[in-house]
Amino acid sequence: MPTSSTKTQQAQTPRQAVEVKTPDSQPQEPSKPSAAGACAGSQLPNYQPVIITIDGPAGTGKSTVARQLALRLGLDFLDTGAMYRAAAAIMIDRGIDPDDIGELVSLVLGADLHFDWQQDPPTILAWDTPIDHRIRDEDVTKGVSFVAAIPELRHHMVRKQRVIGAQHPRLVTEGRDQGSVVFPDAAIKFYLDADPAVRAKRRIEQLGLEDTVDLGEMCERIVRRDEIDSNRADGPLVCPDDAIVIDTALHDVEGVINLLEEHTRERIASLLNAD
Fold first, then answer.
1. What is the pTM of this model?
2. Tens digit of pLDDT for each residue in 48-85?
3. Which residues of 220-249 are buried (b: 16+ CB within 10 A; e: fewer)?
4. Out of 28-32, 121-125, 181-185, which region has the weakest mean confidence (pLDDT)?
5. Straight-line distance from the first to the last Cα atom of the chain, in angstroms, rounded to the nearest whole number
6. How many domains does the chain have?
7. For residue 127, what are the domain limits?
8. 24-57 burial by CB neighbour count: b if 16+ within 10 A, else e?
């Protein structure tokens, strides 16, 4: 039995229909495969638009499993955290005073943050220049919560993310407010969690800080960031009521991806059967 749980029954959201206009003189559109047949393969049927949101606090493995889930299902992958990290890197590298919110927001808007979708994973660009090499550095990691709590900046990022969702309607997107704010009508929502000590150990390994940061210090950082992210006024870290909750401390990476895939295929099959 999977150890995941659903807080409440997932809200039934209308499936986005794909309108096909065929002149009377043309043959009818071939019938689509059955739900069972469509979901049995390695990828989801390409006529099925689907937004999958994966939220959760730092260190739960969201980016890793979201990308792998997208690859398994043949969907695009959006790392929204990269957008806020890019904004933090811009603030630091351009020497912007953190108190000068207007200047920071103006600079980030002018940078036109966007992704190169030809890369795997998609590369984040600022001023049409890749910035992904910078966004995982420790100083950026320390500053990202401050940047992410700026309301004007969050509103801008949410708009951008919704545009991406419209341009890439078959999407796995991860962050902290994807299912609660950005895509509240997403067909499938997940919330990943784990004990702070487990997340701290993962974050140290992810950032290669074994020789510079001890577990206790990183655990304090994780807890402090949880508090900041959960208590900010705009887009706080919350678990959507209709999200499937998975404790990633109980599974290895492959096990988490398997659970995500299992729940996703079940949900897609139910949507197809409802048609």
1. 0.82
2. 789 999 999 999 999 999 999 999 999 999 999 999 99
3. ebbeebbebbeebeebebbbbebbbbbbbe
4. 28-32
5. 29
6. 1
7. 48-274
8. eeeeeeeeeeebeebbeeeebbeebbbbbbbbbb
CATH number assigned to the domain comprising residue 63: 3.40.50.300
d(CA 177, CA 7): 17
Cβ within 8 Å of residue 196, ≥6 positions away: 59, 219, 222, 223, 226
Q: Is residue 1 part of a domain?
A: no
Residue 197 lies in a domain: yes
Strand, coil or helix: 26: coil
Beta partners for residue 126, in sequence order:
129
Between CA 57 and CA 80 the distance in angstroms is 13
What is the distance between the alpha carbons of residues 244 and 5, in angstroms, rounded to a whole number? 6
Task: Give domain status of residue 34, yes or no.
Answer: no
Is-contact 209 73, C-beta < 8 A?
A: no
Beta-strand runs (E) in 22-112: 50-55, 76-79
Q: Which tokens sit at 168? A: 């890439």
- What is the average pLDDT value for the chain, to the nearest integer? 85
| 120 belongs to a structural domain | yes
Residues 72, 259, 231: CA angle, nearest 5 degrees: 105
Both structure tokens of 125: 């660009």
What would the mean pLDDT of 230-237 be, rounded to a whole number? 92
**Structure token digits, residue 122:** 């998609």
Length of the chain, in residues: 275
Q: What is the spatial distance between Cα 13 and Cα 187, in angstroms, rounded to a whole number?
A: 6
